């Protein structure tokens, strides 16, 4: 039988429900130092440690700068929604400069400049609206598909133009096709490229899910009925293993989206594998602006980061054209297909394909996640296991529960200021519910032999955060951090 032992160093206001896997006091003092200082580095600021480390490695930024950029991007995402609604037909797109933390918004009517400025963005005047550019881009899909050497199209917001990527010798025929489609000459730019995009499915072993007993892809994001992934990974009706399930719907080419309905016994969790022994919580699916820095998780290459270059990109794969993709500078390799793209804790898309690799770099395209959710009427699982929408969640019904109070920036260790000895593998769930006006986060830490290391965390902007973790034997503790705001909180821990 699995035994979970808690060592109590201090008395707090706590309720402990004893069950078959009871948390019991330990008389002897084990190895860890429960009073070792926590430190901001241990809590990885507001964002997951692995996400920040990947940004530092791939984007050459410090940890502090990575946090600043993610905070800036989250605010810019709200600005995008605001301006898209306010500007209507005059909206010509919005993008950000991640280096200088500047938001730019383009308008076709100069009378809208004050609206842009009130939203905190810099106004840019443009000839064409975003709606016009996207309609013209869509009209190019069919005629350009007949032109050899066209690898794809996308809208360059900053230049207010449709970019058509062509190989040597294809520019003239592509220009004729655009003219025949009725697209204004000044609205199109032809860009020479050597890119030959391909999908990133593979037929090798690995820690991922498998289709039909052979090919391998990566899970995108958990939904209440299973998970979403790339359509090219499997056709409708195809079976999967690890986890077991069936493709309930799949579209490719045209789009690159699929819904896998998993079999009983598979539990969807609102988190992404960080390939460092933990997970990163998913809080929602708010679209990040062009220019945002994003990170991808895949079963072949793990975590890698880059920048969003464009939305609604069209890519020509050997199997056919795919529309509506996110174009990025993130790298990927075969087997990463279907994997998760995140902007902070917000789901963005699933890996479709691209060119290059993670040694030399490249361009990778992603199927946006929200169209998948809408097409199949799915609910994204968020925040370490909770569903988006529905009744307000709460941190109740846990085996261990404790009430406390923290001032902004404060931290508290649980259970009861200490840790527990986990003998054997187990699923650990922890949560914190803080004041409605605050942002309290929860961290699970494991003793490494010399220090405490964060292995999982719930760190969204809501008043309730939670995490789940598949644990092996060792010493563990839970840390509550008052990231912003002050007040009372409830925390809970369940080991099963």
CATH level-two architecture of the largest domain: Beta Barrel
List how many beta strands DSSP finds.
Answer: 36
Residue runs with pLDDT of under 50 for 5 or more positions: 1-30, 37-45, 201-207, 384-392
Task: Give the CATH H-level superfamily of the largest domain.
Answer: Trypsin-like serine proteases
Q: Which structural class do the helices and strands define?
A: alpha+beta
Portion in strands: 35-45%
What is the radius of gyration computed over CA atoms, rounded to a whole number of angstroms? 24 Å
Supply the CATH class of the largest domain: Mainly Beta
Please characterize this protein's 3D structure.
The chain has 496 residues and is of the alpha+beta class. It has 4 domains: 3-48 and 397-495, Jelly Rolls, CATH 2.60.120; 61-125, GMP Synthetase, Chain A, domain 3 (2-Layer Sandwich), CATH 3.30.300; 130-192, GMP Synthetase, Chain A, domain 3 (2-Layer Sandwich), CATH 3.30.300; 198-387, Trypsin-like serine proteases (Thrombin, subunit H, Beta Barrel). Helices cover 15% and strands 42% of the residues. The chain contains 6 helices and 36 strands. Strands 1, 3, 29, 30, 32, 33 and 35 form a 7-stranded mixed sheet that branches. A 7-stranded antiparallel sheet has the order 12-11-15-16-17-14-13, covered by helices on one side. A hairpin with a 3-residue loop joins strand 24 (346-357) and strand 25 (361-368). The termini are close together. Mean pLDDT is 83; it is low at 1-30, 37-45, 201-207 and 384-392. Keywords: Disulfide bond, Hydrolase, Protease, Serine protease, Signal, Zymogen. Residues 128-184 form the Peptidase S1A alpha-lytic prodomain domain. Pfam families: Pro_Al_protease. Residues 383-418 are annotated as: Disordered. Residues 1-27 form the signal peptide.
């Amino acid at each position: 039988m699995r035994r979970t032992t808690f060592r109590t160093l201090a008395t707090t206001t706590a309720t402990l429900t004893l069950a078959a896997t009871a948390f019991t006091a330990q008389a002897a003092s084990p190895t860890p130092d429960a009073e070792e200082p926590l430190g901001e580095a241990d809590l990885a600021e507001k964002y997951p440690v692995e996400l920040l480390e990947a940004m530092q490695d791939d984007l050459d930024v410090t940890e502090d700068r990575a946090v600043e950029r993610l905070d800036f991007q989250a605010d810019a995402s709200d600005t995008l929604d605001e301006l898209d609604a306010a500007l209507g037909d005059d909206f010509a797109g919005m993008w950000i400069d991640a280096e200088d933390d500047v938001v730019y918004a383009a308008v076709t009517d100069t009378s809208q400049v004050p609206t842009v400025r009130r939203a905190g963005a810099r106004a840019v005047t443009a000839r064409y609206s975003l709606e016009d550019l996207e309609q013209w881009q869509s009209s190019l899909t069919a005629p350009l598909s007949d032109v050899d050497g066209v690898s794809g199209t996308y809208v360059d917001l900053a230049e207010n133009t449709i970019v058509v990527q062509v190989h040597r010798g294809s520019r003239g025929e592509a220009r004729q096709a655009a003219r025949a489609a009725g697209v204004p000459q000044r609205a199109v730019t032809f860009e020479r490229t050597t890119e030959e995009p391909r999908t990133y499915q593979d037929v090798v072993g690995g820690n991922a899910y498998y289709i039909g007993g052979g090919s391998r892809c990566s899970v995108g994001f958990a939904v209440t009925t299973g998970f979403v992934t790339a359509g090219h990974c499997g056709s409708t009706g195809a079976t999967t293993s690890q986890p077991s399930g069936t493709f309930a719907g799949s579209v490719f080419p045209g789009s690159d989206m699929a819904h896998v309905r998993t079999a009983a016994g598979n539990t969807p969790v609102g988190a992404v594998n960080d390939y460092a022994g933990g997970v990163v919580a998913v809080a929602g699916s708010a679209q990040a602006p062009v220019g945002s820095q994003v990170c991808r998780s895949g079963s072949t290459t793990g975590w890698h980061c880059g920048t969003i270059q464009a939305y609604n990109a069209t890519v020509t794969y050997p199997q056919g054209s795919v529309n509506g993709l996110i174009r990025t500078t993130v790298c990927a390799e075969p087997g990463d297909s279907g994997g998760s793209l995140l902007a902070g804790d917000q789901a963005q898309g699933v890996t479709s394909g691209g060119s290059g690799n993670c040694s030399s770099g490249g361009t990778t395209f992603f199927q946006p996640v929200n169209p998948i959710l809408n097409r199949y009427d799915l609910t994204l699982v968020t925040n370490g296991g909770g569903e988006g929408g529905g009744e307000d969640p709460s941190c109740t019904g846990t085996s261990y529960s404790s009430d406390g109070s923290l001032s902004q920036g404060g931290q508290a260790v649980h259970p009861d200021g200490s840790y527990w000895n986990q003998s054997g593998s187990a699923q650990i769930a922890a949560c914190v519910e803080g004041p409605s006006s605050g942002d309290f986060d929860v961290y699970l830490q494991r003793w490494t032999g010399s220090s405490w290391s964060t292995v999982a965390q719930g760190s969204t902007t809501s008043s309730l955060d939670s995490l789940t973790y598949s644990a092996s034997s060792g010493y563990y503790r839970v840390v509550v951090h008052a990231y912003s705001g002050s007040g009372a909180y409830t925390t809970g821990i369940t080991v099963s």
